[in-house]
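Predict the assembly for these two chains.
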Amino acid sequence: MFVCKNCGGNIRFDIKSQKLVCGICNSSFEPEEIQKENDSVDYDFFEATIFTCPQCGAAIMCEDNEAASFCTYCASSTVLTSRISREKKPDYIIPFKKTKKECIDEFRKITKKAIFAPSQLRDAKVLEQFKAIYIPYWYFNVKQEALFTVNGMEEYKDYTSSMKGLNYYNVSGYVEGEYDGICRDGSYDFSDDLGERIAPYFTAEKKKFYPSYLSGFYADTTDIPSKVYEHEAREIANDIARDVLEGEASRGDYKDMKVYLSNDEATKQFNTQVTSKRALLPVWFMSFRKKDKVAYMTVNGQTGAAATDFPISIVKYLMGVLAATILLTIPVTFIMMMFRYDAAKLFQDVTLFISMLSFIIYFIEIKRLQTKDLHSEDAGKFYQKYKVVYIKDKKKNVELKNFIRANIVDLSASTVQVFILIFYILCIAGIFSPDANGILLRIGMSIGNLFMAGVCAYRSFGFKKSSRYIGLITGSLAVVIVLAIQIIDPISKFGNMLGGAVLSLGCFVMFIDLVLYHNELTMRKPSLLRRRGGDEIADSVDL
Amino acid sequence: MKLPIVLICSFFIAFFISFILIFILAKITSVSAKVKKNSEEHDTAGIKYNCVVKNVDIKNKLSQVVVKTNDKTTI
């Protein structure tokens, strides 16, 4: 606790005035003026109270030694155990600029768009639970100074002979650069994704750290070593230097000069050196608890940028489906009446076509959710799990994106066009009738659906939980039933209607499964946090 | 076509389309985010930097690859 020099009352950091203000006599002080006795003696460490939640194990640092009765991370009301700890002093701090009211206003803006999010997230009482937390970040400074020789390449076109070619060059020179304020979060449980979405922080407003800045606020403790993000800091600096070099090289006769360098090559050529410092950056943080699971809502305490992954309310989803079904039934009935063909068979054909589409959506979505579940794009969580520094293969990602852009999007568009064309031709030719061609088409589409189910199952092999297969198994079973009907009694009106209904219900289970999986990833059990704090951190993190 | 059969079929088709559309809508609205930046771009927001490249010298290496272009543009 920090004490007022004038009256001995408790003083806390006031966001609006950016000063420490006494709650009793209203005196205000600059944060650097106020220090505890021990803080002035020890330059590297400061004394803080570490509160540990008995429910989830979260360790939160606080400068006040009043008993805490609410865990910010798992939102449970419990008496947190506390102990005094010597914590490594951060080098910098960016003080809070946004007040709680401003934070709630910013958060309300994003909840307006989230129409399927639980209604409680719009409740003023729930939003009052936003807590101001300083999240530990690694603050990187990168320097480059070197004489370099790299490979350059320029494409040329000879229009008269319709030839194009590549000219290779040795590009040499001298580079000097400094990059300050590359920040990456140093807490396992603050996801990289959320960190990126509330970024950037404007580091020009950083201050030298004094423990008094923490008065009245919580702070998380650092548990990710800086080496996890050092390559990213190097990569940012190397990319900028390469762009500057390309700009310089293409000034004269070499207008289209490109320089291709991997991050490692650039680090060597530009002599890229990284130094890391500790910083505490402000985040308004709320854990939204539902039963035994929590979801995190975050707002940047400096800029007000808000980010979260909202859970989807199952009740709202089902209500939405019901409302849309009622709205669509009448127009669909009119469209069906326009066709002269047997309604049951037309129903079967359309459901087979839509189920193909739903398998494609399932595949895309399950791939995205699986990536999130395995933390393969979260360097901090990846390191926590595998103790290996995760290096994004940027080149591979770019190539893959280009490939998708150039091929898969075109291919999908072409496939949809071909399907529509076939459908159109078959409609005109009257093939959607109980003849051999119609049956063959339905069998072919069923096999196509099964193939897609197989592709989805292959994608899902990585799941540890058997419950994750339920949706896919139900969808696949529905397709098998349709196939069986088409083989056993393809002209039965009842059979085709049953097939279509079973297929739609089977795919519905698949989508419910996707919603549940989405919710599972946005709302986690606090026991899974496996937080650590205090002495354990000191043992493992490079100080 | 008998109306009750058409109505039942239409209801199921509408239901099928609805749960897909509502799912896509729920997913889009559940992620509150800025559009992710293209991975080819580097994010320099919030970073203070100064980079200078001097004395650039370019020497032609003799290796040259020539490929036939598909470009049909004529001058």
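The radius of gyration of chain A is 30 Å. Chain A has a mean pLDDT of 81.
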